[in-house]
Amino acid sequence: MRNIPFRKICFSLFIVALLPALAAAQDGKATIAISSIKPTPSLLVALRGSTQVTSVTGSGDTVKTATDTFDPQQELNRIVDSLDSQLIDRVNATHKFDVLSRSDLGDIFHEQALGTSTNLASATAIQGGKLLGAKYLLIATVDDFQDYFEKAVFEGTGRSASKRVFRFSIVGKLYDSSTGKLIESANFQTGNDEFKQIQDERNYSVDTGLLSDDMLVAISRGMAEKIANHLVDVLFPAKVLVKRDNTVIINRGDGGGVAAGDVFNVFALCEELIDPDTKESLGREEVKVGSVKITQVNPKTSIATILEDTGIDKGAVLRKAAQP
């Protein structure tokens, strides 16, 4: 008989012990496993060995850049490390999922030689998700990162101007672990506009150009909120729980991507739409029946005032209105 290593026996016992807890979690909320965030191999190759000018001195039209440099790959690693924990926190804050421990996911991938590389295929995603008992598996990879200063010299004036260029992009893929189907793939970006807003509100080190810990958390938290809120919108769009007089209560609260002042369009769900070619369900027809404005955000629900009503009722779906 082939000898089974003691480590493998312990791992098997760990999985057996974990199953009851996972089954209990699936009785209520959907269970989601979130893989560690990794940069794409091509991005790492592009960053390897490169350096960026980081420090800026002066003000107004007399800004000058120094020659200090930093390692962009190291800076990217700092952002990814922060985003790893922020993503778990923001997904959990939606109150829609039971989030499995990242350490459990990593141990299972390691022992089964599945790996957590950015080349994780859908078949591997299914296997990893099934081992965990997770309904969904979220895989996020960083495909773009830039952080440098651009300097413009105005000929004949002796003046120069410099601006910071910041760009960060992630591709998120959501799998149904039970079928292996890719449910959603989306790209999430942050850049100069959002960076400037955070920069105006928070401090960062001007001497080195490196992000301060405070600003690092702000950037990663903002990106994590984008991913978590999109995830919930795809799987569990906001719905009307109760309608009373001129107000409604919806099933989104703090951490669910709603804020006081937000305006949502309200849609009644009608006939299911079937693709005639693939026979796949494309969801249900949505007919607009009104709009509401959020007035109060509670831990798990929110209250909204009805702005327009041509048939709002319990179960109607809410979609955030486009900003004017």
3D structure, described in words:
The chain has helices at residues 6-26, 41-47, 72-93, 102-111, 122-132, 192-201, 213-235; strands at 30-34, 38-39, 52-53, 56-57, 64-65, 69-70, 97-99, 136-154, 159-176, 181-190, 240-244, 247-250, 263-274, 281-297, 302-309, 317-320. The protein is an alpha+beta fold. It has two domains: 6-235, ABC-type transport auxiliary lipoprotein component (Rossmann fold); 240-320, Beta Barrel (Thrombin, subunit H), CATH 2.40.10. The strands form four sheets. Strands 1, 2, 7, 8, 9 and 10 form a six-stranded mixed sheet that branches. β11 and β12 form a beta hairpin. The chain is globular.
Low-confidence stretches: 6-26, 53-68, 111-122
Which value, in Å, is the CA radius of gyration?
Answer: 24 Å
Q: Provide the succession of SSEs.
A: HEEHEEEEHEHHEEEHHEEEEEE
**What share of the residues lie within helices?**
25-40%
**Class inferred from helices and paired strands:** alpha+beta
Q: Which outline best applies? A: globular
Q: Mind summarizing the main beta sheet? A: 6 strands, mixed
Residue-averaged pLDDT = 76
Number of helices: 7
Sum this structure up briefly:
The protein has 324 residues and is an alpha+beta fold. The protein has seven helices and 16 strands. Helix content is 32%, strand content 35%.
